[in-house]
Amino acid sequence: MTNNRSAKITIAHINDTHSHFEPSSISLSLPASILDGQTSVYASCGGFSRVSSAVKDVQRQAHLKEREFMFVHAGDCFQGTLFFSLYKGYANAKLLNAIGIDAMALGNHELDMGNGPVADFMDQVQFPLLAGNWDLSRENQTKPNPLRDKDNVYAFDQRAGHARYIVKEVFGEPVALFGLAIENMAGIANPDPDTDFLGVVEVATKTIAAIHQQGINKIILLSHLGYERDLELATQVDGLGAIIGGHTHTMQGDFTNIGYGVTDGYARMVDGTCVVQAGCNALALGQLELDFNPDGTVASAGGVNQLLLGRQFTVDASRSEHLEESIHDAVKAYLKSQPNVRFCAKDPFIENVLNTQFRPAVRELQTQHIAEVREPLRHVRIPDSRGGSHIAPLVVDSFLWKGRQMGHEVDFAIHNAGGVRSSLNPGPITSADIAGKLLPFAIGLMVYQVKGIRVREALEGAINNAIDNGVEGTGTGSFPYTANLRFTYRCCGEAGRRIEQLETYRNGNWIAVQDEVTYTSISSGYTATGKEGYDALLDCIAEPQALEVTMADAFADYAAERQTLTAPEESLIHYIPCQCSEDVA
């Protein structure tokens, strides 16, 4: 019989860092008495150099209190900034190794470009990837770099029937950790079709039972399921001491003291399981103080999420207009007294890695002016009273232009609004603005042939998904923008008939798209492979052809060719929102 003992562990955690190795400028709203009537100040926040310094300090304090320590990442380190656009997973591997990650969960953005980049990433990192419901048993072993037999990939064990897990010794007492990823990974990312994601409840239940059979009763889940799903899972599964999560960018805690809202309290307990999450973009560090009873139940769970701030505060976001000295001192004193703020010096080792290996190429792109933006180009996903996005139609037009430039006879282009991430202000636009802000997802373009009826179905499916019109959607990001293709969407129309007046521009005229005619279209690899309502595009005439050019590459070349960017003269999408009257009682 196993003689289990109590265990005390401090777990530092981050999630959804999305290649934000550099600090971000954030606005802090402070009491008027502190700011002498001003409403806010700007601070430098986060970045991997500050994360590293904070983690070292938390680890030092844990050991002084005779607590074991771990540092984990709950998924989505890929995508997000110019560092990823330039270096893909290599920069993440190098910097995650440098800051000392002990384990990481698999996020959906790790799979935006298929399994290959994950496999390459795992060859470079020094920590395990916990993805316990990822079934690699049917993986094609003739691939250039298969995942199945990598020792540091803790996926589903088909023979044993549960997730692989790691064991952390806490002063002689074993604590098990396993990971779970989103079940609908194929719906929101691009995992290879020979690998599947299994149901989280069943995998969690079987894994906990298998761990218990080994005499281990203290179990932690590293999750990339989203905050609400983590809370739900805590009620569905017994035996988890903590769920350390990601995906929804949830910043647990009360941040009203600096002008942000409240999301529960940190370390929320649900049916005996502690649930935590720590925001996004390397702005904050979660610090979970978890104490287990000998029987594996949680004796206590506490800790804090802390924003990681520099010591200088300014009036403006560019951080060039400084506060008066007395106000600056008052701001610093106020923030220093707040428990959810930590002042952090930058770790010189991480700074050296960035300066010598990655920043030079990024800085070069930040100074390369591609074109001039002549007027504000706003971005909205779903058209509102002011109309649709100004910038998304230009982005999708660049896909059409690039495809034709490469010799493909493309009829039109389609792109989902969520793939465009920012508006553009007047002034010069650089490669860094395009690849780091506007189109940070390093996803390639694909040309595909599809019948007109499938185009019609895909457009309706994407909009239905975006506005939850008769379906349970996955978010507004699926709303389509087009080039050389125009249509009306009538929300109150009959399902399957909501797309009206679907036309493509050919030989100087708009002509109706015919259901049985085959057309050539170009989209991002995300849209072309049927994500988030675009599944009708999967019924294509031939396999989509990858062009080996990213969205950002296409738009940069397009902008350089045009030299100036202005809003489209007319909208190709006539979106008629639901105007159905309520039933009268």
TrEMBL record:
Residues 385-537 form the 5'-Nucleotidase C-terminal domain. It holds the Pfam family Metallophos. It comes from the Bacteria. Residues 10-250 form the Calcineurin-like phosphoesterase domain. The keyword Nucleotide-binding applies. Keywords: Hydrolase, Nucleotide-binding, Signal. Signal peptide: none annotated. InterPro entries: 5'-Nucleotdase_C, 5'-Nucleotdase_C_sf, 5_nucleotidase/apyrase, Calcineurin-like_PHP, Metallo-depent_PP-like. PANTHER family: 5'-NUCLEOTIDASE (PTHR11575:SF24), 5'-NUCLEOTIDASE-RELATED (PTHR11575). Belongs to the 5'-nucleotidase family. This is Bifunctional metallophosphatase/5'-nucleotidase. It comes from Photobacterium atrarenae.
